[in-house]
Amino acid sequence: MIRLSKYQCSVLAILVGALLAFYSCNLKTEIPPNPYDDIDYPTPPSLIDTLDPNSIVAIHRDILHPRCAVPGCHDGNFEPDFRTVQSASSTLVYARIKKNNADSTFTFRVIPYDTAQSVLHERLSNCCFVNTNDRMPQDNIGVPLETEYITRIENWILNGAQNMFGEVAAYPNQAPQVTYFAAVDTFEFSAVITAANAGFPLSAASNRIDGVYYNPFLLNSAQNFAILIAIEDDSTALGNLQVNKLKFSYDEDDFSSSAPGYYEQTAQFFTVPGFEIWHVELNASIFNTSQVVYMRYYVSDGESETEMPRNDMVVQYKTFWSFYIQP
């Protein structure tokens, strides 16, 4: 242990006192002013929502995305698709429905300017569209959306169901679609039902060359037969379709009036409840024996014309729409 003399202790005390006095003086020195203290920072203004609450963009942001695009619902697993504004608009406006009510009242999910015929509005406002408590959304069964939200969707539809660019969709009018044909012995209602349910007797694969379903079907010379044509159209009643001509030719790609074996006949419309079809009746004697006869159907909805089959289709379509006259 080191022992200090009284002199040394006195000197040490003087030094400690001096140091304490020095630091005490320096601690009392004023800190220079902050040059930024005098800046007046204004309070940021409140954010203003500039979106029209009745626009598809605002409706998607506030309603469709948070309330409907939830996992397992309209999140892209099935339509309508509410993941984005674009997908919401395109799968709602003039989008054909998959599920209808018992009276088949509706055709599209949304029709601009028409809430009564828009199934979206019906699903949001009707407690029992098909089943009890099947109102949408189904996250809280039987409980409707807030009235404010339903009103905003109503306003969007009544204002034309405009897309994100403020455009109103035009009514769709696709060309008629020829979905199938069938050949039967004679045109009678019983034959139509048989054709629809029993494989189309004359045009079945079992009555085609070599039993191949796309080869010409077989007819006897002088045989009476009828061709039934099934058509779909998105905007025109089937009975109001135009042209409706079935043309025949020995050339698979030439159906002009100068084509070899050219013949044409206007189809007639036939309907009973739940069944609508166009048909022609003729006799095989108007064609040469030992001859393949190709057929082509022409139909129009007044704006677009469809022919089936077309020249650019593979040959199997053309031979499927053909028959062979047996000697």
What would a concise description of this structure say?
With 327 residues, this protein is of the alpha+beta class. The protein is 23% helix and 20% strand. A hairpin with a 4-residue loop joins strand 8 (291-300) and strand 9.
What does this structure look like?
The chain has 327 residues and is of the alpha+beta class. It folds into 2 domains: 56-158, no CATH class; 177-326, Immunoglobulin-like, CATH 2.60.40. It has 7 helices and 10 strands. The chain has helices at 6-27, 56-68, 85-90, 119-125, 147-158, 189-197, 315-320, and strands spanning 177-184, 217-220, 224-232, 242-249, 263-266, 268-272, 275-283, 291-300, 305-308, 322-326. Strands 2, 4, 5, 8, 9 and 10 form a 6-stranded mixed beta sheet that branches. The longest helix has 22 residues, at 6-27. The protein is elongated. 24% of the residues are buried.
The radius of gyration computed from the alpha-carbon positions, rounded to a whole number of angstroms, is 40 Å
Number of helices: 7
Say how many strands there are: 10
Largest sheet: 6 strands, mixed
The CATH C-level class name of the largest domain: Mainly Beta
Q: What string, H for helix and E for strand, traces the elements in order? A: HHHHHEHEEEEEEEEHE
Name given to the CATH architecture of the largest domain: Sandwich
Whole-number average pLDDT?
86
The outline comes out as: elongated
Count of individual domains: 2
